[in-house]
Amino acid sequence: MNTDYTKIEKIKEWLKNNLTDERYGHSLGCADAAKEIAKIMNYDEDRAYLAGLIHDCAKSIPLDEAKHLLKENNFELVCGEENNKKVLHAPAGAIIAKKEFGITDEDILSAIRWHTLGKSDMNTLEKIVFIADKIEPFSRGEIEYKQKLQLLKKTGGADKIIFDCYAYTIKSLVDRKMVICPRTVEIYNDLLLNNIKN
């Protein structure tokens, strides 16, 4: 992918104007992390950077506005997403990326769409952005970030890190007595049964 740096700077400006300072910092951190992970996984670093940069572009829009945007575009949701602001920004973000930034790369749009819930059989870019969002150093901490990168280099694959993310999420939801999306449990089980070796 040939990077249009003028476009990148315009996207950064839009994000800076439409996200909180903390979320903008997270977006920059995710972009850098995605690029680093892509390098380890022999994937297009520029494409990963762009997907990581814009993954949270819809994070600050109100829930009702996000719902309207998705309904207007006949976007199919899963697992009660329609009432969950913490995950609804992901599918809404895919629409904004296409309309606001002119992104037509289906892999990038899909990586944005699935960066919160994830799915079984994620492609490489979906895995990269999913992981980058969870481990980027700006909001997650430099030490944990470096540890996860070392694990990625050691194992040569992303599934162990993704599995750990799901395990942490499920434990956190159980500890807080919150509802667990059946999809989350299904993906956890798929990873455990098919990919993760003890």
Distance between the termini: 37 Å
Strand content: under 5%
Task: Please count the beta strands (DSSP E, at least 2 residues each).
Answer: 0
Biggest β-sheet description: none
Mean pLDDT over the full residue set? 89
Summing up helix and strand content along with how strands pair, one would put the structural category as mainly alpha
CATH T-level topology of the domain at 5-141: Hypothetical protein af1432
According to CATH, what is the class of the domain at 5-141? Mainly Alpha
Radius of gyration: 16 Å
Instruction: State the CATH superfamily name of the domain at 5-141.
Output: Hypothetical protein af1432
List the keywords.
198 residues; mainly alpha; Hypothetical protein af1432; 0% strand
What does it look like?
The protein is mainly alpha-helical. The chain has a domain at 5-141: Hypothetical protein af1432, CATH 1.10.3210.10. The chain has 11 helices and no strands. Helix 3 crosses helix 6 (106-113), helix 3 packs across helix 7 (124-135) and helix 10 (159-175) runs antiparallel to helix 11.
